[in-house]
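User: Second chain of the day. Same drill as before.
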Amino acid sequence: MPNVLVVGYDDSSAGQRALDFAAERARQTGATLVVAHVLEWSPYSFLTVEELAERHKRREAELTRAQQAIVEPVLGKLHKAGLEARGELRYGHIADTLIAIAVEVGASEIVIGRTGESGITARVFGSVAGTLAQAAPVPCTIVP
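Assistant: Same format as last time:
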């Protein structure tokens, strides 16, 4: 069974902690890293044909920018450090999308950084960490 770690990365300090942890684990175990960056997006919106076309253009521009500014630099550093890594860049609900990626790549673990969000938003809508802890099909490591 391949050893694949999916690491949720968003260029934040929490994302960097998760990446550092996953990189060290990959170094120790020979695992492949899948650096997953998810752009949050909700499909639940009623738009005209023109608005949909404009939204699609914006999404394409956001994906290109995220690929160039976030994913490619991280992959370059990981490859330079001798680690096997690839990127996944998607739109969607973060926890659901990380779970989907983990299933698709046959991951043995999902690694994310804890942001410390504990306010009313997290209680009403749930946190990424909470959702992953309840719904992920593989073990999750939440890096403080």
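Residues 113 and 123 are 18 Å apart (CA to CA).

User: Great, on to the next one.
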